[in-house]
Write a structure and sequence with these properties.
Distance between the termini of chain B: 65 Å
Shape of chain B: globular
Structural class of chain A: mainly alpha
Strand content of chain B: 5-15%
Strand content of chain A: under 5%
Strand order of the largest sheet of chain B: 1-3-2-4-5-6-12
Oligomer: heterodimer
Strand order of the largest sheet of chain A: 1-2
Distance between the termini of chain A: 50 Å
Number of domains of chain A: 1
Number of helices of chain B: 12
Helix content of chain B: 40-55%
Structural class of chain B: alpha/beta
Chain lengths: 285, 417
C-alpha cells in the first residue's frame, strides 16, 4: 500500500498540473506551457512566506494565490494576446516559462530549499501503507480541485460560456461571449490555483528552479492520457501516470519508470487518439 | 514615425548590449592576496605565465554558481603562486573565457584564443566533465597542457589526451574508500541508489567496480532527477536486506531520497558520495532532522574543519586568498574551490621540477610529481599521476566519511556548528 500511496500522491500533483493546462485550454483554446512554472512560483512564494518572512498561513495562501494570479495575467497580456495564431503560443509560452524560471533563480538562487508544511507532517500508517499527511492533502486537493472545476464549467454561466468558446470561439463571440476576457480569466484562475497549491506541493518536492521541468512533462502526459479538455480525464490520467511510475519502480526498477509511462501513453493514444476520456469532434474538411 | 524611431533605437541599444556581452573574455589581475610581494624587476621583464580558463561564469543557475566557485579557487591559486614568486619567476595571468553554459560557444572562444598569440601556457577546461570533453581535445590538439576538475574516464586516458590531467582522484578510487568504510564497519551487503544523469551513471559504474574489488555485493537502483518520490525504489532496495544504503545525488533529489527513506521508516546507515556535500540542503536545513539520522557523507580532507591553530601555512594562505577572491565569507563547501586552487599550485610545482614551462617537460614532471615536504596545495595530501593514468591518486585515504554539520570556512565539523 505504501507504493500505492506514493503513486497516488505524485499522481495528485500531475492532476493539479494538468488541471492548470486544461483551464487555459478550455477558456482560451490554447496551451500554456508555462503552467508548471506558475506552480513553481507558488512553491517559492510559499517558502518566502513561511520561512523567510514568517507570515501567517492564511496570508501565505492569499499572497501566493494573488501573486501567481498576477503573473499569469501578465503572461496572458504579454505572451499570448499579442500573438494572433495559436501556433505561436508554443514559442511565446516557452519563452515566458524560461523568463519565469530565470527571475525565480535571480530572487531565490539555484539551490533547493525546504518548504515546511503548514501542519505536522510526520509519517504515519494509513490502510497498511506509509504516508505523510501532505500527501493525503495533495490527493484530496486534486479531487476537490477537479470537482470544483467540473462544477464551475457545468453549472455556471461563465463555465458554459467557456465550454462554448472552447468548441467554437467565433460562434461564441457571435452569441455575445467576450472570449478575450474569458481567456484572461482562464489564465487568472489557473494562476490562482497554481499559487494556492504551492504550499502543498513544496513540502513534497522542495523549491528549486528545476521543479517546473519535473512537473511540466508528466503533467502534460497526464492531460494527453486523459484527454485534452477533459477534467475527469485529468484526474484519471494523473493518477494512472503516478501509479504506473510507482508500481514500475517497486517491481521492475527506477530505470524503467519513464519508459513504462510513455509506452502506456503511446498505446492509449494509438487506441484512443483523443485520450481515455477526451471527446471526439467532427469537422468539415 | 516616433514609435518606429523609438523601436529602432531600442533595437540598436539591445544589439549593442548583446554584442558587448558576447565578448566573453576577461583577464583578472594577479595581485597577491593579503598584500603579497610585488614582482621583482627581473620577473616583471619576463612574459607572464598565461592560464586560460573556460568557465560558464555567465550562466544562470547551479552551473553558473559552480563556475564562479571554480573561478574564485583559481584566483586564489594565482594570488598565492604569484605571492611566492610566480611560476619560474613568471607572474601568472588568468584569462577567463565565459561559455555561458554552452560548450559550443566555449569551443569557438577557445579555438579563437588558441589561434592568437602568445598562446596560453595552460588551460583550465571547464569545471565539469561535459565542458571538459569539449575543451580538452582542443587544448591537446594545440599541444597545450590542460588541468582541472573534469574527470570523465576518457579525459584521464593519456593515450587519448596526453597533455590533460584531472585533479580529483578517479571515481573508482573514491568509491573504493566508501566500500572500505562499509567493510570496516561490518557491512556485508549494500543497497545503492544513484541518479540517472551522466555523473550518477559514472559513479554507479565506479561503485560496481569497488563492490567487486572489496567483495561486498550490492543491489543497484537509479532515479531520474525529475522524480518527486523514490519511496517505491527504496522499498525494492529495502527488500534485499542490506547493511548499508549508499547514495549519490546533487540538489533536490538528495532531499527526495532522504524524505522517502524517512517516510518508509527505514533505519539504515546511509552513506552519500561527495556531491552530497556540495548540496547546500545537506549542510543547512536538513541537519539534525530525521532525514540525516544515521547519515554520513564522503568528503575530501579539505572539507573537514581544522582549528586556526592546527592549520598548515598552506591552508592559511589558501583561506586568506580565497576570502579575498570571493570578497567575503566562504559559503560553499571547500572542495568546490580547492581543486582549482590546487591546479595552479601543481602547475607551479611541475614547472619547478621540470625547470621549464613547455608542455612536454611539464607533462613528464606531472607524471612523476615530487611531493614537497610542505606542499602549497590543500585538497589532497598528495597528488600523483602516471604515464598510464591522468586521474590523480592521493594517499588512498583522502575521502573519509563525516557527519554533516553547518559549514565554517567551508568546512564541516567545526565545534558548535
Amino acid at each position: 500500500m505504501t507504493t500505492v500511496w506514493a503513486g497516488l500522491s505524485v499522481g495528485a500533483i500531475y492532476v493539479l498540473v494538468a488541471l492548470g493546462y486544461n483551464i487555459v485550454f478550455i477558456t482560451a483554446g490554447t496551451f500554456n506551457f508555462a503552467n508548471a512554472n506558475l506552480i513553481m512560483v507558488g512553491v517559492f512564494i510559499a517558502y518566502w512566506g513561511l520561512v523567510q518572512v514568517g507570515l501567517p498561513v492564511f496570508v501565505v495562501f492569499l499572497v501566493a494565490g494573488a501573486g501567481v494570479l498576477l503573473v499569469a495575467g501578465a503572461e496572458e497580456r504579454v505572451a499570448f494576446r499579442p500573438v494572433k495564431h495559436h501556433d505561436g503560443h508554443l514559442v511565446t509560452s516557452v519563452g515566458a516559462a524560461t523568463l519565469i524560471t530565470g527571475v525565480v533563480q535571480l530572487i531565490w538562487g539555484a539551490d533547493a530549499l525546504q518548504v515546511p508544511f503548514i501542519a505536522k507532517n510526520n509519517p504515519t500508517s494509513v490502510l497498511g501503507g506509509r504516508v505523510v499527511p501532505v500527501e493525503l492533502w495533495l490527493i484530496g486537493l486534486a479531487l476537490v480541485g477537479a470537482f470544483g472545476l467540473h462544477a464551475l464549467l457545468r453549472w455556471t454561466m461563465v463555465g458554459l460560456a467557456s465550454l462554448a468558446a472552447s468548441e467554437d470561439r467565433e460562434a461564441a463571440s457571435l452569441r455575445g461571449v467576450n472570449t478575450r476576457w474569458l481567456g484572461l480569466g482562464g489564465f487568472a484562475l489557473s494562476g490562482a490555483l497554481a499559487g494556492v497549491i504551492g504550499p502543498f506541493v513544496g513540502p513534497k518536492t522542495f523549491a528549486f528552479a528545476g521543479l517546473a521541468i519535473a512537473l511540466a512533462l508528466k503533467g502534460f502526459v497526464a492531460m494527453a492520457m486523459g484527454g485534452f479538455g477533459s477534467i475527469s480525464g485529468c484526474v484519471v490520467g494523473g493518477f494512472v501516470t503516478g501509479l504506473v511510475e510507482a508500481l514500475t519502480a517497486r517491481w521492475v526498477g527506477g530505470t524503467y519508470e519513464d519508459l513504462t509511462v510513455f509506452a502506456l501513453l503511446l498505446v492509449i493514444l494509438m487506441v484512443r487518439p483523443t485520450g481515455l476520456l477526451g471527446e471526439r469532434t467532427e469537422r468539415i474538411i | 514615425m516616433r514609435k518606429s524611431l523609438i523601436c529602432s533605437a531600442a533595437a540598436v541599444a539591445l544589439l549593442a548590449a548583446a554584442c558587448s556581452s558576447s565578448s566573453k573574455s576577461t583577464t583578472t589581475t594577479t595581485k597577491a592576496a593579503g598584500g603579497g610581494a610585488a614582482p621583482t624587476t627581473a620577473a616583471a621583464n619576463q612574459p607572464p605565465f598565461d592560464i586560460v580558463a573556460v568557465l560558464s561564469t555567465g550562466q544562470q543557475g547551479a552551473g553558473g554558481e559552480q563556475a564562479k566557485t571554480a573561478l574564485a579557487g583559481l584566483q586564489a591559486g594565482v594570488a598565492v603562486v604569484n605571492q611566492n614568486g610566480g611560476i619560474l619567476g613568471r607572474q601568472v595571468k588568468l584569462e577567463v573565457l565565459d561559455d555561458a553554459g554552452n560548450p559550443t560557444t566555449g569551443s569557438g572562444l577557445l579555438q579563437q584564443r588558441l589561434q592568437s598569440s602568445p598562446k596560453p601556457d595552460a588551460i583550465i577546461p571547464g569545471s565539469i566533465s561535459t565542458e571538459g570533453v569539449a575543451y580538452v581535445p582542443l587544448a591537446n590538439a594545440a599541444g597545450i597542457l590542460s588541468i582541472g576538475t573534469p574527470s570523465a574516464l576518457a579525459l584521464t586516458d593519456p593515450t587519448k589526451y596526453p597533455y590533460n590531467f584531472s585533479m580529483p582522484p578517479s571515481q573508482v578510487a573514491i568509491a573504493d574508500q566508501m566500500f572500505q568504510y562499509v567493510k570496516q564497519n561490518g557491512g556485508k551487503k549494500v543497497a545503492v541508489i544513484s541518479s540517472q544523469d551522466a555523473f550518477g551513471s559514472a559513479w554507479a559504474t565506479a561503485a560496481k567496480a569497488a563492490s567487486t574489488k572489496e567483495g561486498i555485493p550490492g543491489d543497484f537502483e537509479t532515479y531520474a532527477d525529475t522524480d518527486l518520490d523514490v519511496t517505491p525504489t527504496l522499498q525494492k532496495l529495502q527488500a534485499t536486506n542490506p547493511d548499508f544504503l549508499l547514495m549519490q545525488g546533487f540538489g533536490a533529489p538528495v532531499g527526495v531520497v532522504l524524505n522517502s527513506k524517512v517516510k518508509l521508516g527505514w533505519k539504515i546507515p546511509t552513506l552519500c558520495e561527495s556531491t552530497c556535500g556540495v548540496t547546500p540542503l545537506v549542510v543547512t536545513t536538513l541537519i539534525g532532522t530525521p532525514q540525516e539520522q544515521d547519515f554520513k557523507m564522503q568528503v575530501p580532507l579539505i572539507d573537514i574543519y581544522k582549528a586556526p591553530a592546527d592549520r598548515s601555512s598552506a591552508l592559511n594562505n589558501y583561506l586568506t586568498a580565497l576570502k579575498a577572491a570571493i570578497g567575503g565569507p566562504i559559503t560553499g563547501i571547500q572542495n568546490q574551490y580547492s581543486f582549482e586552487f590546487d591546479a595552479v599550485t601543481v602547475l607551479a610545482q611541475a614547472a619547478k621540477q621540470a625547470n621549464a614551462v613547455t608542455t612536454p617537460e611539464m607533462t613528464k614532471a606531472m607524471e612523476n610529481l615530487q611531493q614537497p615536504s610542505s606542499p602549497a596545495w590543500v585538497t589532497l595530501g598528495e597528488y600523483h599521476w602516471s604515464s598510464t593514468s591522468h586521474a590523480a591518486t592521493g594517499s588512498g585515504s583522502d575521502y573519509p566519511m563525516v557527519v554533516p554539520t553547518k559549514l565554517v570556512d567551508g568546512q564541516v565539523g567545526a565545534p558548535g556548528a
